[in-house]
Recover the amino acids of this structure.
């Protein structure tokens, strides 16, 4: 099943490429308004048409990719940077008060309706891309902590870890030198999934006006702008939506493909 | 079973207590004093002080926390700062929209996911399975608020089968209410159905590899009979967990969909309360939602333990 990997990798690369190219070149200036040319459907001069201010949608999608990727990437980074050490710690001291504390804390975060809390955080700290990152990032912490702990627990029973303990290595050193490299595959796969969830969350927050603020283009806000125009110019709603769907689809397929590639046991069981 | 239930009950109460502490103090430390927010930037300091004492904001935080928790135990959530009406009434009014919407969406999601998941599992690796799995990949990737906009474009604007938004209310009859919740429920149900179908399929595939399934086949049951009679029942445990989680998600996660369809539900209530700094409403609704999640998880745990004695050993 290499097809997932190839299709997912292709779609993901396409989005990343669009974001990178937008730093040096976009067909039009994303801030340039051209009112006489507003609400034009896709054509040769404007591949994705124009919005209600006559801005070029193709350029906006390119720059919007930048926003989506940046928000989701940093949010996953926060989740990994805090979640992985917590998970490793909990596994190293299984059943201790520390493990109990970390796991109950995880349960607590899971019990909160994430979207409501994200809205709360952005409302408290003010709307904006940075605060959207924090809001999405917080909910990534328990995801990575739980996955790391679960995978690390079974590793602690293995003989090569026992050997490292006999050799006198501390729990911290074992965690980082032996456990972490062995759970990394799993974390990369989960990372792509959280990345795609982050893109969906960013779009949702921007849609209700709590994500990236104007003039920074973002796919979610393009959809919010499109809502009142949807009967006049359906392409305004269709194109940013398709951009989100293809990006998320690409990342999920990439995640599936990577899992099959990195975990040969799954390949046997699934076929 | 009794011991296990007691243990779970104690942990339920502890979780709720911690959650209430976190909710109250996180929201209270938020910048933006409700009184000065309500009166605007030109208000005199003594007017603000007067409103603060009227709203009970001058009482120490600990006391207010205890008041709030004590009130909730009696079903009294306090009084809204902006509307000056009991929060309990506001919440119950909104629940009449959010709860039916969540149940409607859950019913749709189950109706789509069960046949799809069972079909895919029964035809593992064949084109039918591939098609269902491809569709679920797409379903997971579609943002529900965008799907909602597309539904409005097609069924409300072009075909005029449904209104583009708003809620007719239940007093105009059951079917009118259901009709105005249909598009939002479909929009909410789609991604949930995709997830549920995947869970259903993989749960069934896990069971199909078990020894007792081979025994069932060996005693002469056809593949289909074995699937329906033995595999489906055993696959229900993971499926029920996900349904439980989805219900609480649908109750709270409808916030953006309610925004798309201008539905007067719980989500929109929180959203408006946050922007108006109506802290008591925010605290109460978030607490209610957390209560729903924790309680549903508790009930699901108990249901498992009742069905599967092995689970009582583990905690």
């Amino acid at each position: 099943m290499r097809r997932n990997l190839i299709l997912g990798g292709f779609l993901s690369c396409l989005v990343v490429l669009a974001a990178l190219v937008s730093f040096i070149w976009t067909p039009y200036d994303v801030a340039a308004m051209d009112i006489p040319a507003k609400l034009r459907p896709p054509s040769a001069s404007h591949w994705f048409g124009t919005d209600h201010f006559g801005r070029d949608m193709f350029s906006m999608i390119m720059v919007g990719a930048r926003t989506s990727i940046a928000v989701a990437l940093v949010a996953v980074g926060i989740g990994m940077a805090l979640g992985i050490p917590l998970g490793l710690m909990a596994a190293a001291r299984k059943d201790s008060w520390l493990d109990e504390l970390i796991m109950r804390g995880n349960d607590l975060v899971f019990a909160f309706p994430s979207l409501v809390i994200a809205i709360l955080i952005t409302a408290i700290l003010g709307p904006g891309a940075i605060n959207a990152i924090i809001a999405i990032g917080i909910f990534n912490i328990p995801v990575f902590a739980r996955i790391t702990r679960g995978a690390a627990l079974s590793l602690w029973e293995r003989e090569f870890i026992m050997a490292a303990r006999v050799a006198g290595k501390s729990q911290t050193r074992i965690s980082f030198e032996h456990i972490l490299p062995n759970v990394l595959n799993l974390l990369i796969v989960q990372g792509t999934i959280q990345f795609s969830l982050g893109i969906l969350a960013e779009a949702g927050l921007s849609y209700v006006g709590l994500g990236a603020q104007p003039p920074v283009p973002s796919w979610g806000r393009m959809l919010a702008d499109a809502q009142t125009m949807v009967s006049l110019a359906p392409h305004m709603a269709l194109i940013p939506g398709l951009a989100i769907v293809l990006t998320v689809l690409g990342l999920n397929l990439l995640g599936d493909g990577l899992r099959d590639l990195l975990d040969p046991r799954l390949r046997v069981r699934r076929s | 079973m009794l011991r296990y239930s007691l243990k779970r009950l104690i942990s339920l109460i502890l979780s709720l207590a911690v959650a209430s502490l976190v909710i109250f103090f996180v929201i209270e430390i938020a910048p933006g004093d409700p009184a000065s927010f309500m009166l605007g930037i030109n208000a005199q300091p003594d007017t603000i002080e007067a409103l603060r004492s009227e709203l009970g904001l001058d009482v120490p935080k600990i006391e207010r926390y205890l008041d709030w928790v004590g009130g909730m135990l009696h079903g009294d959530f306090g009084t809204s700062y902006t509307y000056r009406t009991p929060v309990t009434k506001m919440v119950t009014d909104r629940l009449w929209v959010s709860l039916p919407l969540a149940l409607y969406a859950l019913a749709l999601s189950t109706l789509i996911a069960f046949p799809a998941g069972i079909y895919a599992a029964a035809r593992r690796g064949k084109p039918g399975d591939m098609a269902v799995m491809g569709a679920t990949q797409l379903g997971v990737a579609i943002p529900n608020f965008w799907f909602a906009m597309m539904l409005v474009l097609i069924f409300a604007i072009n075909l005029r089968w449904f209104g583009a938004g708003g809620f007719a209310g239940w007093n105009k009859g059951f079917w009118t209410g259901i009709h105005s919740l249909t598009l939002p429920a479909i929009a909410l149900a789609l991604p949930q159905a995709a997830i549920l179908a995947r869970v259903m399929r993989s749960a069934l595939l896990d069971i199909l590899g078990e020894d007792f399934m081979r025994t069932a086949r060996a005693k002469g049951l056809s593949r289909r009979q074995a699937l329906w009679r033995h595999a489906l029942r055993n696959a229900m445990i993971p499926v029920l967990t996900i349904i439980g989680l989805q219900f609480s998600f649908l109750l709270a996660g409808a916030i953006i969909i309610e925004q798309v369809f201008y539905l007067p539900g719980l989500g929109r209530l929180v959203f408006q309360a946050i922007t108006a700094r109506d802290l008591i409403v925010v605290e109460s609704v978030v607490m209610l939602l957390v209560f729903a999640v924790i309680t549903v998880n508790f009930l699901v745990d108990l249901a498992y333990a009742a069905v599967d004695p092995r689970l009582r050993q583990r905690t």
